[in-house]
Amino acid sequence: MRRVARVATAALAVLALAAVSPGAAQALPSADPPVPGPPPAPASAGADGKGLREGWRLAGEGAGKELVWASPDPVPMGDARVEFYAGDKLLGRPVAAQDRRSFRLPLHGARIGPAKRLKVLAAGRRLDEAGTDAESRGPRRNPSARPATPPPANAVDPGKPGRYRTVTGTYSLNSVRLPGFPAPVEMKADVIGPADAPGKRPLALFLHGRHYTCYGAGDGQGMGWPCTAGTKPVPSHKGYHRAQKLLASQGYVTVSIAANGINGQDDVAEDGGAQARSSLVRLHLARWADWAEKRSTAPAAVRAVAPADLSRVLLVGHSRGGEGVNRAALDSLARPPADQDGYGGPVRWKIRGNVLIGPTVFGQNPAPDVPSTTILPGCDGDVSDLQGEIYVDGTRGISRGTALHSAVYMVGANHNFFNSEWTPGQATAPADDDFSSDGTTDPVCSKGTGTRLTASQQQAAGATYIAASARLFVAGDDRVRPLLDGSDRRAPSADPARVLTHAVGAHRTQALLPGASTTVKGGRLCAQVAATDSDACLPSSTSGNSPHFARWEIAPEPGRNAVAMRWSRAGEPVRISPARPVSLAGAKDVALRLIVPPNTTGTRLDVTLVDASGHRAKLGRVSVDGLPGTDRTASYWGREVRVPLSAAARDTLDLKHVKTLELTPRTRSGKAWLVDAWGWRPGTPAVRAAQLPRVDVGRLTVEEGDSGVRTYSVPVRVSGEGSGKVRFSVPKPGTDGITHRTVTVRPGERVDVPVEVRGDTRYGHDIAHDALVKAVRGAVVGSYRGGVTARNDDPMPKITLEPVKDRVTEGKPLTWRMTLSEPVDVDMMAVLSFQPADGGKELSTLDVDPRWLENEFGAKPRPERPLSKVTEEPGQGLFVIVPAGEKSAEVRVPTVKDAVSEQEESLKAQLYVYDENWEPQPGPKVTGRVRDAS
User: DSSP of 224-288, one letter per residue?
Assistant: First the structure.
């Protein structure tokens, strides 16, 4: 029993019994302020819950079993998803209660393994028992010192303001409806552009990420939509004015759009809101296209700036906004399914590039033919695994490879401060530093350390690299490419930020992409996402993480490898050979992306190539330093190093048939990981998008039936042109098994992904049979997850409330028993709500156990008041659970004996039970009476 408001109890009922896919977080939107939830649950004492640490418990049994974690404090709303793990195995994404303290994951019969291995992560960051992982991995190491000399300044500094005068305005249009979102979403934006620039100007559109939606009541941080009375929307879209003004001064029209309506509802979206954000971006672009054709119809803020050229569009997205603009770029090249899309009109724009700031990438399917820059904040406390690296790595081998995809690692930057409205001291609404070290000093990321950037420094660096991307992708100025492609140049406007880059695409040709067919001698082919430490590139005991190895929704995941090297003496080469010789003809250099441990310096390796005839040429020696890092950072990141293909090497080797890459350590001991290798030459080629098939996975909902096994097919839609390969991964509910299948897809051809559904006659959970898809070669993916949900079609049991002891002497507990007509597979929940007595004296706060009163209601006995007045709103009361598989549970009200002679007192209560539609239904009323003991 626990005190829970009616609305909160309804939420818990839904969380326990509604249709939930294990991989999809689905918090409940509410127009009401969140109600404080139950305190952390104690460790389960039953056979199924032995050994669980405080805060964890198991609920239910059989197919209805759930894993529940309760946080002592609310988990802040952010962009990363909360996930349950058993060791390194992803169990699923739990459902969050409205107060964001309680998280429940239906297990569908799956085993969780040893209880001590349970943990809660968000983008690799430990949420339960903060610091446990870090402490078990050993002490933090001091970060490496800042290089004695910074890299040379680039020939062009894109962070310098331009010559144009800027003006600022806003527009607000009618709200729009988006598929799957109950409430309309706002169409509001801030426009900053040049007032005096000639002709049509390129357009840069900004999309903020997932943040609190409303402020002004209570603790000032609301998560619902629309905002309730007395609260106002958080103006997140106003947080990029610094970058907007810089671009505007350089001749760009900029618009930053609001997306609170998506943030407040995206927990109901299977993709975390990516498709909804894409729809919103394209709805705004469609309006700009209208205004470009008929300027007189534009809002005043749009007419005040230079006309926009929709053939030159840059998209900038922060956090989940990054994933949203990536999807918008993809959707602009390959139309999404109409039933999933909120924009069905023509594409009247051309997206020249994306800038993604600390982005999420839940789908791990980047748009391969749209150039991109991904800013990775080294002190990101939200998307802390820096999964945005997949926007670079995930494009390799998918399409033509001419689009440049750059990763910009910004040492000392956090997640929030790129947006001034998420920055304390600058924001209108409450704001926080997202990086936390739990009261200790992190030598890299704590405020005031030599590597941590101030908010102003971070915003200046962010604006500079946004402007660099605009200048390269939109304006075609190749002079800024060295700032983005790993050429070790710096932009003075970003000083003192230490910014490192690497890239794929452009004029690179693939020399080595480690995979199952790669032969490795002297090292080992390792799995980026593995089930065991022996296969993993980084074992679970590693202090810190690698952005390259960011997890998807399954483990192990095939098709993602690197080469691990470890040596205890110099001179022993590691030989790496692809399945067949590759051509490096036309390349100027060989570029390697190498990871070395954080805080290390001077890892030296000789680089040698061997051709198919056995001719060898030593190209040179590289030296690689690690990034500043601690156990709280993702600092195992690939540094790009290059060695020239000299004239002597060209004379020695047949560069059209290179067979082996040799890396020979020249330091006494060390570790390194090869991410990939490329033939490199300067320049930025024009990008022409390939005509590729697009795959979207949907979800089919069926009745489970009463018996037997039925086979259904996951809805898979293939559109576009041509043929390509994708990999389907299908977890089997209730087991650890995952089936992987690589499929060739073509528009118009059926893709069969079968799942089996078993019927029964016992009330329980809906069961989700999920299917996930990822592009392998020559294809793109929009909606990456779906499946078949088997809906429970068995009725709820009848529920009664009978007295056990409803007439007692003070000092004894009043007791009733909630009974089900038959056992079920899930916990059954109800609230016993106290009501005013019909007559006589009502049991008061001084008549019950004060510890019980505090635990159940958070109330003190004094001042004395009737129990029906303890709660602040109708419908609050005692939370009653009948555990799955059982038929009854008792609910008690403990009274206390006192020395006061008084008349008989009474307690009236009514049971509210939640039906199959999760509406509270009034149940039986009961009355208890307490006699004086004197």
Answer: -SSPPTT-EE--GGGTTHHHHHHHHHTT-EEEEE--HHHHTTGGGSTTTTHHHHHHHHHHHHHHH
